[in-house]
Amino acid sequence: MNVETWKIQIKKGYLEYYLLLLLEQKERYGFEILEQLKDGDVVITEGTLYPMLSRLSKELVIEGRWVTDQTLGHPRKYYRLTKKGTAIIEDMKKEWEKMSNAIQTIGG
User: Between the CA atoms of 42, 39, 98 and 16, what dihedral angle is there, to the nearest 10 degrees?
Assistant: First the structure.
């Protein structure tokens, strides 16, 4: 068994959850999401984040809106949870708690 492979699989599993937790707090734009993930010791690339945001938008879990800030001079796309996304994150929280409790019970 390779622990590095296991870490990659775990990261793939919780990355979407972490992203939705960030968007549950407030709407955010792509670079801000990358920075927040990095602050949480989750380093991903734009090549991973933006396809995930696109897929979640197509699945109607999140929605994006373009905002043009005159002080920045360029538009940013801000993402937020939809009603469907809010329901999904609640289900994910329950499942995370169940898994966490099971691990703590087994691991002592």
Answer: -50
CB 76 within 8 Å of CB 20: no
- Topology given in CATH for the domain delimited by 3-107: Arc Repressor Mutant, subunit A (1.10.10)
Domain ranges for the chain, please list them: 3-107
What are the tens digits of pLDDT across the range 58-99?
999 999 999 987 777 789 999 999 999 999 999 999 999 999
pLDDT at res. 34: 95
Spatial separation of the C-alpha atoms in residues 30 and 74, rounded to whole Å? 14
